[in-house]
Amino acid sequence: MEHFYLHRLSPFVVEFSKGFGIRWYGLAYVLSFVVAYRLLLWLAQRLLVPLRPEAVSDFITWSALFGVLIGGRLGFVLLYDFPKLLAEPLTLFRVWEGGMASHGGILGLVVFTFYYARRHGISWTGVGDGLVTVAPPGLFLVRLANFINGELYGRISTVPWAVQFPTELRERPDLLEKTAFAQLSSENALELIRHGGEGAVDLERALREVLPARHPSQIYEALLEGVVLFATLWLMRTRLRVPRGVLTGTFFILYALLRILGEQFRQPEDFNFGMPRGVFLSLFLILIGAVFIRGAFRRPSYESGVA
Known about the structure:
The chain is mainly alpha-helical. 59% of the residues lie in helices and 7% in strands. The strands form 3 sheets. The protein has a 3-stranded mixed sheet with strand order 1-4-5, with no helix packed on it. Strands 2-3 form a two-stranded antiparallel ribbon.
């Protein structure tokens, strides 16, 4: 399998000591909030969202904390790690261990924007429309970080751009037993691959023989959930006159459909009713989106900056 790319990227931007440093995953979230702030400020200055420009920074900060981080973390432990939560309740706060769910983050933002809009006496759906318009670049960055981490990889494939992920050794330590490096633990093998050293080249050659090549589904999802979704919503926001709530509904529906498409290439982790959990949860987002769009056209109101 010499023609496939062997993933050897480090999850650290800078690693100060073993296992401690600045991670790409954390940096992706920081950059996501910065990009969202700049885009939302642009919309607010043009009256395309019911927020005063000077209120945008606070809104993004609290959205990041209560919507994305808390909602995403709660979603992950409830949907994907519930047995561990029951056994160790404090795992909820161990965010440094990783684990965020996009569905949880999305629903967390819905709850937060409702509270924020009610408190400040502004349109909930108007605020939501602005937020969902600027959110996809963050999805793009986080999916790229997933690829760098070598997590959430795709199904086995022979396409020319398929990737071999050594991180699969965490789930399949038996693969090492098929090589001359059976004495290594999965983590030690990953460290050797990422940092090099004596035996690294031989280990890479051995892993190429046993690791299956897989779709880089993280990249597919970055393009679908990040680029395609953002382009669609941005054009709708800046070029079309649609009632408040339509963009929010469109986000839910289009994100769900694109996520379902991406799941066709992603290695399933859990199933519900015979469907990958990501597909199952996305069906509910389609229903929520339909409710938003129906409500938007029943009592239409518009942003003053839309031509």
